[in-house]
Amino acid sequence: MSQLTPLIAGNWKLNGTKSLLSEFAHVFNSINISNVDVLICPPSVYIDTLVQLNENTDSILKVGAQTVSEQISGAFTGEISVSMLKELQTEFVIVGHSERRAIFGETPELVAKKYQTTLMNQLTPILCTGETENDRNNNLTFDIVSRDIDAVINLTGIESFKDGIIAYEPVWAIGTGKSATPQQAQEVHHFIRNHLAKHNDEIAQGVRILYGGSVNEKNAAELFKQDDINGALVGGASLVSDKFMSICQHAQSSL
Ligand code: PGA
């Protein structure tokens, strides 16, 4: 882990309840985890609940959304806009998670628009990218991550990574219990930083690159030892408060 403040982000996906959020706010209340940003991205209907819980406690949990519309407003039934998220005091938005790409057909260009819309409203986008097992077997890993990052650079310029975050999430590692090895993850994180550095070295050195894919309380410490890993995007283990806490503590110990 480099000097950048680590971010441990929990992506609850289509899981969780109000009472689980209360438990998290309680467990992360006045907790002594310093120099680590801790974020929960619950389903959007629970965002306001988390904000209220934070107001009533000293919970350190930051608030994020799992996706957002690329549209500002209008006739888009079922969508949620960035300004609505902002009104709820959401700080972060995950864009282009592999499930959104694979199940909901989000293209690199659409994801780039979501990234841009998020940034323009002063929220922090977390851009997800990662290869499938098939891509990896065909040596396409670097092509896939370049494609997703270049779609953002082409639309908004390299400067947009000054205030954004990248999450490298190999699809084959998500929800499978089969995390990338620390070396495999570091190799891709390093590639991503170098890729950004071709445009602007200072921005490349300043961007936080999270690893995601079966991160848990057992493998986190080794992952966080890697130079270019600046935290984690956690699915399954973010639904269990003591596991998520343990991952946050490993991030702190790695500093
Ligand atoms: P996982 O999910 O930790 O359950 O593998 C990670 C993610 O999808 O962000």
Number of strands: 8
Cα radius of gyration in angstroms: 17 Å
Major sheet = 8 strands, parallel, barrel
The name of the CATH architecture is Alpha-Beta Barrel
Contiguous low-pLDDT stretches (5 residues minimum) are none
> What is the strand arrangement across the widest sheet?
1-2-3-4-5-6-7-8
> Which structural class best describes the helix and strand composition?
alpha/beta
Could you spell the SSE succession in H and E letters?
Answer: EHEHEHEHHEHHEHHEHEH
Bound molecules: 2-phosphoglycolic acid
CATH superfamily: Aldolase class I
Please report the first level of CATH classification, the CATH class. Answer: Alpha Beta
* Mean pLDDT across all amino acids: 96
Fraction in beta strands: 5-15%
Helix content: 40-55%
**The CATH topology is what?**
TIM Barrel
How many distinct folded domains? 1
- Shape, principal axes of CA atoms: globular
**N- to C-terminal separation?**
7 Å
Number of helices: 11
List the helices and strands and how they pair.
Layout: E1 7-11, H1 18-27, E2 37-41, H2 47-56, E3 62-65, H3 82-87, E4 92-95, H4 98-104, H5 108-120, E5 124-129, H6 133-137, H7 141-156, E6 165-168, H8 182-197, H9 201-206, E7 208-212, H10 220-224, E8 231-234, H11 241-253
Parallel strand pairs: 1-2, 1-8, 2-3, 3-4, 4-5, 5-6, 6-7, 7-8
Helix pairs in contact: 1-2, 5-7, 7-8
The structure holds 2-phosphoglycolic acid.
